[in-house]
Every structure is written in C-alpha cells, then in structure tokens.
C-alpha cells in the first residue's frame, strides 16, 4: 500500500455521476411504456493510488454499472469521471492500457487456446514490451502456481485455475488500476486463499490500485482497509470496517468466565446478559461504547476468571444495511475518505 505524499494522488475520481437507462415495460396486454431506471444516482468517491477498496452492495445496487463506466464501456448520463486523469468514455482505448479488468463470471481468455497462447495474444494487443511481459508472466506463474497449466486449453481448466489464468492476463500489461468483479466466486477455500494472497502481494509490490466487487465479505475483511457500500445507485457508507461496525449501531459482546455457575449477571449499566452457559455468560453492549467500565462493573461484583470482547459479525451489519437499516447509515452523497473514517 502506497502512503504519504503518493497517496494524495487520486487515481479514480467520481463526482456526482449518474447513469439512467431507458427501458420499455409492459403496461397492460398490449401497451408498453418507457421507464427510467436510475442505476447510478449522484455517486461520488475518490480512490488514491495504491489503495485496495471493497465495493459492495445488494443485487441491482449499481456496482457493475459503475465498473462499466470506469472502463468506458458505458457513458455516464451526468457527472464527472476520471481514471488516471483520463475520461473513460472519451478515451477508452488509451485507458485500456492503464487498467485491468477481471470478471469472475466470465473469462476474457480464448476458450480453445492454451493459456500461454492467450497471454501471447494479450501481449500483442497491448503491445507489452518483451521484458515487462516476461517479468510479469514469470511472477504470476510463480505466485499463482500456473506453470503446469500454461499448455492447457482454457476450456479444460477448473474454475479456480481459470480465475488464476484470468487474473494473470489482466496484469501482463502492468495496469495501474485493477477492477475485480467477484474474483473468488465459486472457488474452493484453498483457491480463494491463494487468489487473496496473490492480490495482497500485487497491491504491496506494485502499488496497483484495486477496486474489488464481491459478495464474499471475507474478501473484504482480508484485503481492504476501506469499504464502500452502494445501494440504489449512491453510497450509503464509505470508510473502514471498524467505522462500519460503529456506524451500524451493532452490538459487541463481552464474554465473561466466572469462578462458578451463577444466575444471569444483572445491574451492569449499558449491558444486558443474552446467554448463560455454565460459568460462562455473554453480555451485549453497543459497539460504540467502551468495554472498560463494563468489565470494571462486572469485576466489582462477580468472581471474574477470564473475559474477551467479540466484535459484531460483519455479515450481520451488512445484512442490516442492505435491509435499509435506517438513516443513520446515510452519509450523504459525497462520501467520506478512508482516512476520515479510519
Ligand atoms: N443495460 C441496462 N438496461 C437497463 N437497465 C439496466 C441495464 N444495466 C443495468 N440495469 C439496471 O440498473 C440497476 C443496477 O444494475 P447493476 O448491474 O449495476 O447492479 P449490481 O449492483 O452490479 O448488481 P449485481 O450484484 O446483481 O451484479 C438494476 O436495476 C439493473 O436492472
């Protein structure tokens, strides 16, 4: 991760971006009416060079539409977009040399060709200098254990192998920005771990800026210091995972081991006992509150042997958020930066 002065350079800039689709919907037996779908609605965020950001949201929230606008495939209906200083819709080809894209659900490789030949085509398409190509391919082959697969046609690869192949193809031309759309979808635990480890390495070694869309929150927890949550086309959260926990109003749990079995602990201000199992008891308290006074209150009146504090599950918070957890989630449409929230 790049820090200090370099971090100030904003590689992705999205300001008040909108995307409206015009669709024809059935209205009655024969009649069709035109309707507007606001897929992205006043979206604003910035991503500094070298950052790895999670971009999550429920189905239909506008994630893919955002990525398509950032690659230049779709033209925004309003607002301003810049990636590495380039307007994607105006200079799509020039931008293509600076970005890499991986879609978990489909491959960009040639189905009938061995991986090696696909890479050769990528090299020619992007006119990658020989030395860069060889160095990048070697590094990816080593880190992703692709050596034995280079001669295998893409159609014969497993999903995990194909994904490793796709990620390599996206990195051969040294992109500054990598968009990953569900890179671990359908992968087994070992393949997921390998892909995540690889992405961490790439981000650390090359300072590649990564925008990661996923439904697997473990990807986010293991890779991203910052997460942006989009719903109905605009950001409802932008910040660190810790901030998400606090903003979610979720509860933390104080788990205490007492010297012996006792009735549920009572009279601890701000906490309530939610479970008792033998000498162990669980007390829920607001995530925004410090655990220290609770511990002191329990220790003063009960024979305390051990304790731990559990953070709310990120899945629970996100589910709450997607279900329309209320206005406390809404940070407005300008978004905060990761540094504000961390
Ligand atoms: N080409 C299109 N024409 C009309 N409507 C579209 C088009 N593409 C997307 N939409 C609509 O825009 C909204 C946002 O879709 P988008 O694919 O960006 O969501 P998403 O967050 O990527 O969802 P998912 O997690 O399911 O992939 C949805 O209501 C979708 O139906």
TrEMBL record:
Q: Tell me where it resides.
A: Cell membrane
Q: Does the keyword Nucleotide-binding apply?
A: yes
Main subcellular localisation: membrane
Gene3D superfamilies (UniProt xref):
P-loop containing nucleotide triphosphate hydrolases
* GO molecular function terms noted in the UniProt entry: ATP binding; ATP hydrolysis activity
- Protein's UniProt keywords contain Nucleotide-binding: yes
Residue stretches making up the ABC transporter domain:
12-257
Q: Which GO terms describe its biological process?
A: response to antibiotic
May I have one GO cellular component term?
plasma membrane
**Chain coiled-coil ranges:** none
Q: Which regions span the lipid bilayer?
A: none
Q: Which UniProt keywords apply?
A: Antibiotic resistance, ATP-binding, Nucleotide-binding, Transport
Identify its membrane topology class: Peripheral membrane protein
Give the PANTHER family listed for this entry. ABC TRANSPORTER ATP-BINDING PROTEIN, ABC-TRANSPORT PROTEIN, ATP-BINDING COMPONENT
Q: Under which name does UniProt file this protein?
A: ABC transporter ATP-binding protein
Source organism per UniProt:
Streptomyces tubercidicus
Higher taxonomy: Bacteria, Bacillati, Actinomycetota, Actinomycetes, Kitasatosporales
């Amino acid at each position: 991760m790049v820090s200090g002065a370099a971090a100030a350079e904003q590689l992705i800039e999205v300001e008040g971006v909108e995307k409206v689709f015009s669709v024809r919907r059935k209205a009655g037996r024969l009649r069709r009416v035109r309707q507007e779908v606001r897929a992205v609605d006043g979206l604003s965020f910035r991503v500094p060079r070298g950052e790895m950001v999670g971009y999550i949201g429920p189905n239909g929230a506008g994630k893919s539409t955002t990525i398509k606008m950032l690659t230049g495939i779709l033209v925004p209906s309003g607002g301003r977009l810049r990636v590495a200083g380039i307007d994607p819709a105006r200079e799509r080809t020039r931008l293509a040399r600076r970005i890499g894209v991986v879609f978990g659900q489909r491959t960009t490789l040639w189905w009938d060709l061995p991986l090696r030949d696909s890479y050769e085509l990528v090299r020619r398409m992007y006119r990658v200098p020989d030395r860069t190509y060889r160095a990048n391919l070697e590094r990816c082959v080593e880190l992703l254990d692709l050596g034995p697969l280079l001669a295998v046609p893409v159609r014969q690869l497993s999903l995990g192998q194909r994904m490793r192949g796709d990620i390599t193809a996206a990195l051969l031309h040294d992109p500054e920005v990598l968009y990953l759309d569900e890179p671990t979808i359908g992968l087994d635990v070992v393949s997921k771990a390998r892909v995540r480890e690889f992405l961490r390495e790439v981000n650390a070694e090359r300072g590649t800026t990564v925008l990661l869309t996923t439904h697997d929150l473990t990807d986010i927890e293991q890779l991203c210091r910052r997460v942006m949550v989009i719903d109905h086309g605009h950001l409802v959260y932008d910040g660190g995972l810790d901030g998400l926990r606090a903003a979610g109003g979720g509860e933390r749990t104080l788990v205490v081991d007492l010297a012996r079995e006792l009735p549920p602990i009572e009279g601890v201000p701000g906490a309530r006992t939610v479970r008792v199992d033998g000498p162990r008891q669980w007390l829920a308290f607001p995530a925004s509150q410090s655990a220290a006074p609770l511990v002191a209150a329990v220790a003063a009146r009960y024979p305390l042997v051990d304790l731990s504090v559990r953070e709310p599950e990120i899945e629970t918070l996100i589910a709450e958020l997607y279900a329309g957890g209320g206005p406390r989630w809404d940070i407005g449409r300008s978004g905060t930066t990761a540094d504000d929230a961390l």
